Amino acid sequence: MFDNCLQTYNAAVYLRLSKEDEEAGQSESIGNQRDFIMRCVLEQGWNIAGQYIDDGFSGLNFDRPAFRRMIADIESKKVNLVITKDLSRLGRDYIDTGYYLERYFPRKNVRYIALNDGIDTFAANGGNDMSPFKAVINDMYAKDISKKIRAVMDTKRRNGQFIGAFAPYGYAKDPADRNSFVVDEEAAAVVRRIFESYIGGVGICGIARMLNNEGVPCPAKYKLATGNYKNAMLKKYRWTQETVKRILTNPSYMGSMAQRRQEKISYKLDKFRKIEPKNWIVVQNTHVPIVSPDDYRLVQELIQSRAVRYARPEGAPHLLNGLLFCRDCGAKMTYRRNKSGKMVAQCMTYTKYGPSLCGSHRMNEQAITDRVTGELRKIAAYALDEDYFGRLSLEPTEAERDKSDDGRLARISRKLAENKEIIKGLYLDKLKGVIDEEMFLAMSGEFGAEKERLNREYAELADKKSGGPGGRNDADYMSVIRQIANFEIVDKLILFRLIERAEITSDRRIVIKYKFRNPFTADIPT
Question: Which of 343, 354, 367, 162 is closest to 256 using CA atoms?
Fold first, then answer.
């Protein structure tokens, strides 16, 4: 893999481990990464400029202390080689990883090596050609980790467990159960007054003005005075219309645990968006109410009667929209329904001006999508071997699996399958006269009892896994990762990251131009 040039390399050994990676065990530990890389560095005789360790930092962004220190050393020319165990250790964000790999390192004349992925930017090899492809898969992997964590948090929310840092204004966390609330009487009195005022005809703006005039501490100021809450952005600490409305519309005040009222815009950003009340996770009767359910519902009716709603219809998505072009004239392909109701793509020039300027190039949209994703699956099979999936996998080793719930579930499933085949065999033997009715009933009864016991054990383990901390099912998880990598799950995001454009020829062929080197021909035969 490495050349024998006489250039002196000062290597930065970069090691990273996120909290999610810690669950992968020793295979991704800092110590394991260090040992693996150091063997290579010593064998090549490279100088070690330094070890840069970001332990507990996500690969979704590059604002990591050790990484920034390594960049500073590159700028001061102390480092001209960066080496990691694999590409995902450098980062999991496709765009930023691509920037360092394809722009920053080459501009600084820095060699980059990802040992496990066969990437060496100073060598001509296939690993370099496929690095953008693998970077996209790493990004999708990180995206699915985010979804998995969100699913675990949602499970806790649906069980009525509070997972936030601070209880809603009017409550405090129960010292005996940090996932539940107790009433904070001082703040609860203000909450009751807000509800009573609104029912009495005082508007939201009027309530905020009244509380500010009386010098009542707003929720942020109250938390600052009674706990360790800090927020440098809140300098005025005043009641606002938004604060009052948030209290009036929070089901927690009638004794129901209401969570997931907002969500992160993206797994890469720390920005949030509000969620419609109908999509909140609400569990009833989890704690002592501050206001009665009847008063709470009355307030919601009053708010609804004063609200104006706007609806914005969403158009049907076209997976390849923006990527599909006419091969002959270069115009975009547009979409129409044919007489049978199916969606077809055809040249926009033809649609506007007729056959005098260009042909229709008409093709069934689903057929185009199937052919493009089929080509991507073919490339995935070539680029991503079993060893690649093994490095992504969060599954334990075979020895660890036998001790885990996953291993026990798998063994029970195998025994149930064997049990079913045995009972089926006994029945066939009875039909053939090999055994009589009495023997069949006796033997099938024994296996039936075993089947019931196995089913109970399986159900108990499944319940434990779904309700326990983390709730991770690695087999299902890796199944999703494989679906993504094999393009069984496809969305516009991954297509736009991998494909420059797809062109339809006059004879209905598809020519795909990728953002990476395609190891196969780009023409997909009809």
Answer: 162
